[in-house]
Amino acid sequence: MSPAHQPLARTSYAIRSRSTGITASTLWRRANDKPSLADKAANQQYLTPREEQALAEYVLRLADNGYPLPVKFLRSLALIIVRQRSSVFQTTVPSLKIPPPGKSWPQGFYRRHPQLKARRLRAIDWKRDDRQIEDKVRHWFAIIGRELADPAILPENVYNMDETGVLLSVLNSLKVLVGRDDLRKHRGTTVKRTLVTAIECISADGRSLHPLIIWPAATHRSSWTTHATPGWHYACSKTGYTNTEISLYWMKHVFDPQTRDRAGGRPRLLICDGFGTHESLEVLKFCFANRIILCRLPSHTSHKLQPCDVGVFSLLKTAYRAQVEQACRAGVNTIGKPHFTYLYDRARAEAFTLRNIRSTWSRSGLFPFDPSRVLKDVQVSRPEVQATPVEHPTVPFNLHHTPNTSDHFALLCREVEQNTSDLDTGCKQRLQTLTHAAEKVFAERALLLEENRILFEQNNEKSSRQSSGQTVIGHAKVMSYDDIVEAQKKRDLAVAKPGSTQKRRSKARDKLPSKMEEKCRAEQEIRTWDMNDYCSVLDL
After folding, report:
1. Residues 369 and 283 occupy one common structural domain
2. How far, in Å, CA of 540 to CA of 25, rounded?
3. Are 169 and 61 contained in the same domain?
4. Is residue 536 part of a domain?
5. Number of structural domains, the chain?
6. Are 441 and 405 in contact (CB under 8 A)?
7. Cα–Cα distances in Å, from 23 out to 94, 134, 225?
8. pLDDT digits (tens, 9 = 90+) for 202-233
């Protein structure tokens, strides 16, 4: 364009810009076949737009299958896609040094793809996932709704019981104030991972019953109950957990005496989880004889439906840790069982308030009865989208070789474009679409090859692990891996010898008399005491 025509061209672009709303620079770039700013930025990215689209679809497919991809793995997947441009397989070639994307590349990646969102997820059993329990939750509210609609069942006669484990003195990290020159990153405290189990029960009108504490011990000690706790009950178990005997004792001596008079002959409804000890034959007989209606929660739904788990237990453990913090600051060096009743009693008084208990029943959708309080948080299962097969047109040329990498295909496309300069605009656009589709397919192929490689390694490891039996190969307290391999070889040689008695010994060892089992069961007998039993023993 001559200099005389330049002002006229600028004037025409400015006039068209005012009439169309498009900037003059954009109109000039389009008129002179210049790439747009978006296309220029896309060409400077680590992955091409088609490769990024393939990676985004791969990430969404993993999320739909229940295994969302961690953000830190995005860079390695992008590097895999780049490597496949010049290599058939994802092998690391020493001469081929491909730098990975920058540390901030993942953030830019999911900003460019609004269908993706970074979120921090808490690890949970897959069976407890919202999409897995939606039908169970709906069925639960259909069943419990009919029970609560009975005029004979009043809110003060509806209860929920559950066990909770409390660690004696495991504290969390805290933000504290220290001196400017203090370089310490830790604080001194004693860690006592002893777990004490407490059976708690709350009512729909905001009351809480006296707890039953289960010590992880074989015998009771008087020093554990120096803090006065009238009405509490105590049991001992070597494992520290409840069992059939303790559950039956709780039903007869804790729940029934504290709720019978208030019920006044009306039925009592008790909601509990599906733990086996809650539904023993003895417990069912007692409930049937005393008009106690047991309502068992569906499996893997207690974190959504059980009032104790929904609210008060988290408040209880937070309050207990605060009491432990206060005791440590007051000079208590070790928190043990003698401190538990005092600290736990103060924590219960802070957590089991009328407001907290009623809020817990409301959040579980029971009082007031509102299933939407729970169902709105449960994700609705989405039907799987079936991928539509794409018919790829065949190349109407006789080629000397078939392109098997992205680079080879790009070279072929450039050759075709040079030989077809006389094609119209429609044919060129279709050729460009074909190029983009093939580029995306190569990126998807790279991701699938990497996934197959990982699955192949895992299957090989599982096969080798399951092929070897669990046999005793040494009695030393500490053995190196080489020692284990050598001991395994010696044992295999000993078994392979003719007339070896190793197999006969192992079979005889499996047929031990049942007296040992009877002795173990006898040692696991539970003695359940209440506070009056403690007082009588101390008086003696």
Report:
1. yes
2. 100
3. no
4. no
5. 3
6. no
7. 49, 52, 82
8. 999 999 999 999 999 988 888 899 899 999 99
419 to 395, 410, 426, 430, 439: CA distances (angstroms): 14, 14, 16, 15, 21
Percentage of the chain surpassing pLDDT 70? 76
DSSP β-bridge partners for residue 215:
236
Average pLDDT of the residues in 453-482: 66
Q: Domain of 29?
A: 1-34
**Does the reported pTM lie above 0.90?**
no
Tokens 């049937």 identify what position?
A: 288
Rounded distance, CA 467 to CA 425, Å? 63
Residue 190, both tokens = 């004693």
Same domain, 422 and 342: no
In a domain? residue 495: no
- In 3D space, the residue among 161, 214, 123, 189 whose CA is nearest the CA of residue 321 turns out to be 189
Burial class (CB within 10 angstroms; exposed 0-12, middle 13-18, buried 19+) of 225: buried
Residues 202 and 322 in one domain: yes
Question: Residue 82 in 3-state DSSP?
Answer: helix
CB 137, CB 380: distance < 8 Å? no
DSSP labels, 318-361 = HHHHHHHHHHHHTT-----HHHHHHHHHHHHHHHS-HHHHHHHH
